[in-house]
Every structure is written in structure tokens, then in C-alpha cells.
């Protein structure tokens, strides 16, 4: 629906991308130029609000006239890198791809939570890869604000989103919601991870999270993109990945492969040995009696996340026991002080 050019902002001296409505392609496809222009203007208003490091920035918008007619345009941040679809055509290690997915997902969480905006066209082509290894979500051209969801820019029976990634409810004429974006992003995650996983089934924790996000019924999915991101991160961290997927091999978009953390943009520091928790000395009676209990507690906590109800219950229980003991000691101390004062008289 548009042509994108690399350009130069002479006033500020910066490289930009200029996205111009491709009226010729629209005419050939039977598109409504007025509707597409309205969509472009809407994109400018919505995207200009976005100030996230994981969303392509829109600097300006306007209309120009040339031999092809009146054409609206957007001036955007220039991302000198491929999109995720192009990136998947090259060798890429699992941590790098997870980094891309989490970056773009952070952009979606921001759009949903801060501006109540639904993207409606999540796909690998709309995830741009920056030279520094980060990822940005782009193309809010068919996005809608939830509070204006009743103002439909699409005509009846006119499919806007990419069918391969569209949620079932949007394919049957229902309104797109934030949960529709969750479905589409889960499709992108499944496709990306299957690509690097060599055709083998994905680890079970990851499958469970993605399968829930891909439920046909929106009510059965995660309640938000933020909840999906939290569950996806937890599943990735606890999944057993094959060595060939985790290995850092191949070339990155910037030249050499950058060692990155699994879910955090930026360079990962050299691996360090995780220090062993200090143990209670066993050369005393207290240490001898308490050491097995502390070791068992540590083994239990290592298997639980901080969001696990059992972890929370354990912390509350431990705090209650500690509070009771301290209260009892304080009571004894106050009683002893009281008795001592009384005996002085």
C-alpha cells in the first residue's frame, strides 16, 4: 500500500525514511484512495504519540503532489536493517531471535497499556531489526484506538490484516482487540522459534504459553500482552532448548554475531559462575541441627518462581513464624524488665 524511500532531513541533518502512499498500486487493486489517505492520517496521529524505544518513531507527516496525484506521506525514523522475515533467511542463534521477539513485544505492551492502541497487523515484516541488535515494531497504518473502535476505516468484506497472522475473530468481521494482537504475536513467535528449532517440537513450557495465546476464543487467551510477555519470558527461561539452537553461529545483520542475553537488548557480559549461597557452619550444635532444614528450603525455593503461589505462601509463612518468635521474645524481655523494676521497689 506504500512506497518507502531513504531520505535526508536537511533542516536537522538526519537520515529518515519517507513512506508515501502508493496510489498506483491502490488503483490497480481497486483500493479506495480516500479511505487509504484517512488511514495514513490516522497512522500519523497514532504513531506520533509513541515514544518507546521498541517502536519506530514518526517525525512528521504531510501531503505532496506529483505526476501521480496528491499523495500523503510520513517521515519516520530510518532503521538501517532488515525486518524479521529477512533476518530469518540468515543463520541466527536462539538468544538473538528471542531478543528480537521480546523487544517487539515490549513495543506492543507499550502501545496497549500506554495508548490503548491495537496494531492489527502483527507479522515478521513489521518487526524491524536495528544495527545494534534491538527490534522495533512498525507500521501502525491500520491500527485503531480502542475508544474509537466503532469508527471503522475498513469496508465490509475487505480484509486488512495479513490472513496468516490474523486472529479468527477478525477474519469473521468482529472487532479487533488487544487480544487479537496477542494471537498474531503468538503466531509470529511460533513461526520464528520453529524456524530455529529445526522442525522439532518446541519445548513444552513454550508450547503451553503459545497454545493459550492461539486459542480461537479470545476469552481463553492471556488477559493482555503484558501477561503474555510475562508468561512467555518465564517459559523461555525454564525450557530445555537443544544445543544447536542455543549455539551462537552464523552472521548477524550487522556483520559478526553479537553475544546477547536471551531477553535483554545489549551485549551480555562474560558468563560468570553463580556464587553458592553461604551455608551455616556445622561445627556448632545450632548449625548441625539447622543446616539440613536450610538446604531443603533452598532446594524448594530454587524450583519456584517469585510469582508462584507456593513461593508467596512460603514467604508469608516464614514471615509469620519469624514475627511470632520475635513477638514472644519481646514479650519475655518486657516481662523481665517489668519484674526487675518491681523488685527494685
TrEMBL record:
Molecular functions per Gene Ontology: protein serine/threonine kinase activity
Domain Protein kinase: 1-332
A Pfam family annotated for this UniProt entry: Pkinase
Keyword list, A-Z: ATP-binding, Kinase, Membrane, Nucleotide-binding, Serine/threonine-protein kinase, Transferase, Transmembrane, Transmembrane helix
Matching InterPro entries: Kinase-like_dom_sf, Prot_kinase_dom, Ser/Thr_kinase_AS
CDD domains: STKc_PknB_like
Keyword Cytoplasm annotated: no
SUPFAM superfamilies in the record: Protein kinase-like (PK-like)
Transmembrane segments: 311-339
Protein name in UniProt: Serine/threonine protein kinase
